[in-house]
């Protein structure tokens, strides 16, 4: 009976909220409609132009050309590899950021979080330069990899994956961090009381609790890695079949093969739309 009354009360509150939005004071002020419509047009009309100029009849042919096909294959594989790396390293990093409040000072946590999230606001080209200075043949770490093992990372497919991982990992960290902060720690405390080790608690309790956040972050990482341009072309270059991803190929094709550039842009747009639709509730936290 209590559960039924609670659900009935929740539905009544929702209906009341809906009616409140219909009142004169609950709507959108008329003065805001003009800039809102301008903003919508500014964001939507370029996409409309892309769809209007798309060579729909030759899309299959364009997708199977060697250049476009290689770029598509490389982008999908490298973005998938970057997503795996982001999950492997980003989930523990998010856990450290959240749980460090138990032992670290607030200043340390703020500095650490700022450093982790720098790629979100850093120009991608700067990230590529930084990776080159770290892992290049004369870089801080790259010189030892080359001198001792003969390993050269820049301008290889590995460089593509690392550049994509660098720019995409903060998206996963943010998603998992939010899920960890929203998780009920009483389950972890109960498992610890029963004698479970920290690793067992993390594996069997924490990870299942934050699984939706991990999946949402992984999808965001994949989309961000798939669309990466600046850091990739700076650190990995543009070699067909090796480092020339879809964004790079679209940029180069715009000069000699506009139809191919449009087809690649449509593919990237389709992936972005799928990501946004799949993350609708998880990202904004409100269903529609």
Automatic annotation (TrEMBL):
Pfam families: BPD_transp_1 (PF00528). It is found in: Cell membrane. The keyword Membrane applies. GO terms for molecular function: molybdate ion transmembrane transporter activity. The keyword Secreted does not apply. InterPro entries: MetI-like, MetI-like_sf, ModB_ABC, NifC_ABC_porter. Its main location: membrane. The chain crosses the membrane at residues 31-54, 74-98, 110-135, 155-176, 207-227, 261-279. It is a multi-pass membrane protein. Residues 72-281 form the ABC transmembrane type-1 domain. One of its GO terms (cellular component) is plasma membrane. Keywords: Cell membrane, Membrane, Molybdenum, Transmembrane, Transmembrane helix, Transport. Belongs to the binding-protein-dependent transport system permease family. CysTW subfamily. Part of the binding-protein-dependent transport system for molybdenum; probably responsible for the translocation of the substrate across the membrane. This is Molybdenum transport system permease. It comes from Cryobacterium tagatosivorans. The gene is modB.
């Amino acid at each position: 009976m209590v559960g039924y009354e609670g659900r009935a009360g929740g539905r009544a509150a929702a209906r009341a909220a809906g009616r409140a939005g219909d009142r004169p004071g609950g709507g959108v002020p008329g003065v805001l409609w003009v800039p809102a419509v301008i903003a919508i047009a500014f964001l939507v009309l370029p996409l409309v132009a892309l769809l209007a100029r798309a060579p729909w009849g030759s899309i299959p042919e364009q997708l199977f050309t060697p250049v476009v096909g290689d770029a598509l294959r490389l982008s999908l594989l490298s973005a998938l590899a970057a997503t795996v790396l982001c999950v492997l390293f980003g989930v523990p990093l998010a856990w450290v950021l959240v749980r460090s409040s138990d032992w670290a000072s607030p200043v340390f946590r703020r500095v650490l979080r700022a450093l982790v999230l720098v790629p979100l606001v850093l120009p991608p080209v700067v990230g590529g330069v930084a990776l080159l200075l770290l892992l290049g043949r004369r870089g801080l770490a790259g010189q030892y990899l080359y001198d001792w093992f003969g390993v050269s990372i820049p301008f290889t497919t590995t460089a593509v994956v690392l550049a994509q991982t660098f720019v995409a990992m903060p998206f996963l960290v943010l998603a998992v961090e939010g899920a960890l902060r929203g998780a009920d720690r009483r389950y972890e405390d109960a498992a610890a009381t029963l004698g479970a080790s920290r690793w067992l608690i993390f594996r069997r309790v924490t990870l299942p609790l934050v699984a939706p956040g991990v999946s949402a972050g992984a999808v965001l990482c994949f989309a961000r890695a798939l669309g990466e341009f600046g850091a990739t072309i700076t650190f990995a270059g543009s070699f067909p079949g090796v480092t020339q991803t879809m964004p790079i190929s679209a940029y180069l094709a715009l000069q000699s093969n506009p139809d191919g550039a449009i087809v690649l842009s449509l593919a990237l747009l389709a992936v972005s739309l799928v990501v946004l639709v799949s993350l609708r509730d998880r990202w904004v936290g409100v269903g529609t």
